[in-house]
Amino acid sequence: MLCRGGDGCLFTLQQSSSNMMNRFLRRQENPAEEPESKTLDDPWRELRWGEKQMNLQYVQEYKPEKDDIRYLRVLLYGPVGSGKSSFINSVSNVIRGRMTIPALASAMTSDQSFTKRYETHKFIKGRGSTKTFYPLVFNDIMGLEDGTDRGVHADDIKLALKGHVKEGHKFNPVAPISQNDPGYNPTPSADDKVHVLVCVMSANTPQMNSSVLEKMKSIREAASDLGIPQMAMMTHIDEACGEIEKELKNVYKSKYLKKKMKDFSAAVGIPMNCIFPVKNYSEEIDLNDDIDALILSALRKMVDFGDDFIEKI
Ligand SMILES: Nc1nc2c(ncn2[C@@H]2O[C@H](COP(=O)(O)OP(=O)(O)O)[C@@H](O)[C@H]2O)c(=O)[nH]1
Ligand SMILES: [Mg+2]
């Protein structure tokens, strides 16, 4: 706006303010002109970021009430690269209060699964002669690849749910474990069985293909038949949404993530309130309270769901 005084100035001022008014009215009529915010004003789920310590203590002090059950066993399944091994590492970091490297995470983004053996991951409690394990253990099962003869066989996961897969068994993608196999456990104990089934999915991948969805569905049905509680985790949330990458506390404000979780919920039939977003430890060299808070929020639910099931068996 040029203003040199006199009538010309008045005219230019009037013109300028009427232009502004027009722009304002246009925006009112057509909000699309305004770049839409990527975040909601208020989080859609409440997470008390300051309660990390309480949840940590809850998980650290958890112990199954039944005498014949030493461990609450969580089985993680999901596509290759979704972050199952990284989640186990992350839990180890959080529970032990320092960075640790128990389960190998694959840095390669290949379509072949890295974890092939059925292995129980335990977390060490105490040091030296007082060394014991926390009663919360994880099994990480080979990825669910596209196609029938690749990745883990859905039948193997079903047998693992019932505790029939022995520690160290090497999965064969072509043929599921049979009763004659040395890796088959005919008489599983109550804590060989899986107490919570957790699907791990990356928020940073496009739509899942139908054959992976089919495998997931059949596993979920088997778990439902056995009464095993189920939940899911969305990982890679930092990579999927710039707002979360900038600030992890935006996790429940991100419109993108909310939509991704809703779509996932609809595709696999896991209700929204059983899906938890987490950011795994991946590049960090030190612990971070916000990362811990999200992991503990999911972990606490795993413990509660698993414990409910243990009470029933
Ligand atoms: N940025 C980021 N990277 C992740 C996350 N979770 C896993 N990763 C990385 O993704 C890759 C595959 O993870 P991995 O745990 O091996 O997947 P798995 O095949 O399901 O066991 C590794 O390079 C991890 O560091 C996450 O939440 N955020
Ligand atoms: Mg792995």
Automatic annotation (TrEMBL):
This is G domain-containing protein. SUPFAM superfamilies: P-loop containing nucleoside triphosphate hydrolases. GO terms for biological process: immune response.
